[in-house]
Amino acid sequence: MKHSLRFFIALILLILPHREANAAGLVVKDATVTFVTQTNKKIHFQTESDSMKGYKQVKPGQSLSLALDKPAYYYYIDGNSRFYTVFVTPGSVTRIIENNGKVSFEGDHAPINQYIQEHPSFAVTPQGLTLYSQGWLNHQHKEVDRLTKELQTSGLPQEFIRIHSLYYRYSFLLQLINGPETMRMFQGKAPELAPNYYDDMRNNPYDDANLLYYPKWFTVMRNDMELREKLGDIEPNHLNFLSQYGAKIKNEEVRAAFLLRYLEQILNSGYTEDFPAYISIAKKALSHTDEAFPTRLKELETRNDKMRKQYSNITRGNVAPTFTGVDIHGKSYSSADYAGKIIVLDFWFSGCIPCKAEMPYMEKLAEEFKDRDIQFFALSLDTGDQLVNAWKSLVKDKTGATLDLNVPEGFKSALATHFGVRSVPRIVIIDQQGKIVDAFARRPSDPKLRQLLLELLDKKGDSPVTKEEAKETMMAVSQAENAAKKEEIMTPFMERARCQKAEFAYPMINMMRSLVVQGYYQEGQTEKADSYLNEFKSLAFKRDVLFIAGARLYENGEYKRAEQLLERASKLTLELNENKNLTDEEKQKYPLVFGIYADALIKNGDTPKAIPYAKMAYDFSNKNHFTVNQSYATTLIHQKNYEAATPFLEDFVKTGRNSAQHLVWLKEAYVVKNGKDKGYESYLKGLKKESAKQLNEKLSQSMVEEPAPLFSLKNLKGETVSLESLKGKVVVLDFWATWCGPCKASFPAMQKAAHSFAGNKEVVFLFINTLETKNNLKEIVAKYMTDKRYDFNVLFDLEDAATKKFQVMDNYKAKGIPAKFIIDKAGNIRFKLVGFSGSEDETVEELKAMVNLLL
User: Fold this and answer.
1) Are 669 and 675 in contact (CB under 8 A)?
2) What is the pLDDT of residue 691?
3) How distant, in Å, are the alpha carbons of 409, 634, 757, 847 from that of 734?
4) Helix, strand, coil percent content, the chain, rounded in steps of 5
5) What is the C-alpha to C-alpha distance for residues 217 and 852, in angstroms, rounded to an integer?
6) If both were cysteines, with which of 26, 321, 465, 565 could 550 make a disulfide (CB 3.0 to 4.6 Å apart)?
7) Cα–Cα distances in Å, from 229 out to 244, 364, 753?
8) Ramachandran region of residue 434, left (φ > 0), alpha (ψ -120 to 50) or beta?
């Protein structure tokens, strides 16, 4: 355990003699529990943990030895079937005394256990309060607060207080989550819940590892996550759901424990072909784990492999057997009559309460898909006149799309035997070709079943992966709002491509994976990104991913984090090419990798370290790359090599790319060369004259005259802005997206350019957001503009639902972003710019010159 939790365990283990160490490195010691009872009735003792089922009978006078590596809660059930919670720690001694119907405790934790009995976690609902109403919820909150406060002042050991405080809280959460469903299952009605009923669940970050002492911690967390799916808080994803669940758990130790238990539950539910994908997702969901975690994962993988052999005849892709069943009128139906359709089998019997609880969900699915190529079978395994009559009574009034049939011979039938049906409910899915998709499918109440059926109906599950689909998925991954969403989109496609061995898709998949890695790096989740990166075998590909991620951070002005990634990319570049002849491809990458790394070092105040990298970048460049030349010139100035730096500084002025610092250095160089500053102003004026000349020549050569496509778009304020209404003005359009680094890098220059014309009513700047599909796009853009203090008039070029095009972007035939179009007063495009040079001053001067030419 971590922090104080580990300290508490270590303290206990130091005090008491140990027996042996377990796989996780914790020391196991025997706790002794003795039952001093005077009763002829049966008594039981069992762990409260939700991993155990049933109760173990014990006898008066008996002593149990419990091998524990941490504190635990147990149940003692007395002769009158009353439950008592018992707290036990490794090496402790406890005596439970039952005499004349009263239970008391002796031993190491007698005061604690007596306190627990006097302060039970279950709050009785006062008369007049409706279960799960607002009044009930308020009462529960008060009770949890009262119990917690009394515990704080109880004088009991602080570590117990910390553990038992969470016992109270999570006992309440367990009742909160399970109560309404239990009522629906056993009473057949759903209670009316308070409006804020699930807030306690939704706001719980699972950030305290002491939670793992609560015996039913996994039941609370599992039911919480699955309920959030049903409520729509988590988007159902039958492959990537573990990643989504893990993202809701703040404490990594709790997350690791939860993922292990969930993987165990999956195997307990039956064999699944997707288990390797789940294992991979579990690994990626964690940054740090103890040495036991990979060992447990390996054990689970081995267990799944054994199950695959056990169920080899019903694994995915096997042909499903045909079967017959009879309805309540004795009419026989054969599955062969539904060839070409997806078939969903729901095995159940009339005495099964969970089966009957799932029926409404199955019927709802059947009704939703009744007009599609899918047939739902509710297959009763009831046998004997009494049970068959009970089945008939249950289904006689059903009129939905589900076909209710009884399978002769029930559990002993050839069909049930083939699928190994020993417990119900059991769901089996068969595809349009009559092949098994999942012989242990999720229950109908689980939204992930619906999602899987939708994929099968849309023929995405088993249909051949296509190049077009790969491109579409790649685009969706690139535009996803965060790394987790990118991973969620990528994972199902990647698994299908691997299953089908669609090798043509692998390069595209690698690009998707690189986008996921870049996303995690940009979000600061370095360890998660590294775990993904380590899966790549190619050093060159690793280098490229690190470089792109670092370059994106650099573009966003996060120079410190950019430097860390670019340093790794630079070292990999040198390692790749050590003592080798450089390929043409590597020669092209030197200026990029080393140039931006050098510039990041300079921006972080470490110019000396940048010197060799700036030199290599320049040597391998085309000598016309502004960022490379600027970094190289900076290192030359740092070395007082003014003579070598001067041509670069002069070129920056001539091309309009100079900054104020460049002018300072140019003057220093002039003085070093001439011994004084006399004549400098004339010298500088000549350079600027050359700059104006070059700019005018460039503009005259780049001018076009094309009618600007008209548009009418909404802005952040909800106002409609049309190009037609701006006739008679010079309009500057800037196409951009929140995911575009160069777009955002150019915004300081655009702000300056726009402000330079702020007093001119004949000039309008419009910033058109495009190529984005985020649901809350306007909120994201508004926040970005506020955070950065930009006062842009942002318009939204939204995706057309029918054509899937961004119409304004498409009409302007922009080949990339950032893209700028300068439109004259007559409504014609006169200048087109794509990309960002990296020079703020150059961009401002160029835009000002273009606009002034059109005024």
Assistant:
1) no
2) 67
3) 72, 31, 16, 11
4) 50, 15, 35
5) 69
6) 565
7) 10, 17, 48
8) left
SS3 732: strand
Q: Residue 198: how many CA atoms within 13 Å on its side-chain side?
A: 15
Contacts of 223 (CB under 8 A, 6+ apart): 174, 177, 178
- As a whole number of Å, the end-to-end CA separation of the chain is 70
CA distances from 369 to 69, 341, 372, 375, 768 (A): 51, 12, 5, 8, 41
155: left (phi over 0), alpha (psi -120 to 50) or beta: left
DSSP 503-524: GGGHHHHHHHHHHHHHHHHHTT
Angle at which helices 217-231 and 447-457 pack, to 10 degrees? 50
Task: Dig out the tokens for 529 from the structure.
Answer: 């990104």
- Which residues, in sequence order, are CB contacts of 714 under 8 Å at separation 6+? 720, 721, 795, 796
Tokens 């309008």: give the residue.
764
Radius of gyration of the chain (CA): 35
For residue 651, the cross-strand partners are none
Whole-angstrom CA distances from 297 to 91, 279, 293, 536 are 30, 7, 6, 21
Q: Given a cut of 50, is residue 288 above it in pLDDT? A: yes
Query: How far, in whole angstroms, is CA 263 from its chain's centroid?
Result: 18
3-class DSSP assignment, residue 260: helix
Neighbouring CB atoms inside 10 A of 122's CB total 11
Residue in this structure with the two tokens 């809280």, named with its chain if needed: 169
Q: What is the DSSP string of 672-713?
A: HHHSS-TTHHHHHHHHHHHHHHHHHHHHHHH---EEPPP-EE
pLDDT value, residue 816: 84
Query: SS3 sequence, 230-255?
Result: HHCCCCCCCCCHHHHHHHCCCCHHHH
- Among candidates 777, 782, 768, which has minimal Cα distance to 819? 768
Number of residues written out for the chain? 855
Q: Given the DSSP bridges, would you call strands 342-348 and 374-380 parallel, antiparallel or unpaired? A: parallel
24 phi/psi in degrees, rounded to 5: -85, 0
**145-to-123, 139, 151, 177, 646 alpha-carbon distances in Å:** 12, 10, 10, 19, 73
Backbone torsions φ then ψ of 438, nearest 5 degrees: -155, 120
Per-residue pLDDT at 10 exceeds 50: no
Peptide bond into 408 cis (omega under 30): no
Burial-class residue 576 by CB neighbours within 10 Å (0-12, 13-18, 19+): middle
* CB < 8 Å & 24+ apart, contacts of 7-14: 8/159, 9/69, 9/70, 12/71, 12/89, 12/90, 12/91, 13/90, 13/91
Distance CA 271, CA 300 (A): 12
- CB proximity list for 718: less than 8 A, separation 6 or greater: none
Is the CA virtual torsion 724, 726, 732, 734 positive or negative?
negative
pLDDT band at 54 (very low <50, low <70, confident <90, very high): low
Residue 8 has pLDDT above 70, yes or no: no
Closest to 364 in 3D by CA, of 460, 459, 424, 453: 453
What's the pLDDT tens digit per position in 106-161? 999 999 999 999 999 887 888 888 999 999 999 999 999 999 999 999 999 999 99
Bond before 191 cis per omega within 30 degrees: no
Q: Give CA–CA dist 714/700, Å, rounded.
A: 34
Residues 6+ apart with CB under 8 A from 710: 722, 723, 724
Q: Which residues have CB under 8 Å from 537's CB, separation 6+? A: none
What amino acid occupies position 54?
G
What is the number of alpha carbons within 13 Å of residue 286 lying toward its C-beta?
A: 22
Mean pLDDT of the chain: 88
Name the residue with tokens 């220093």.
668
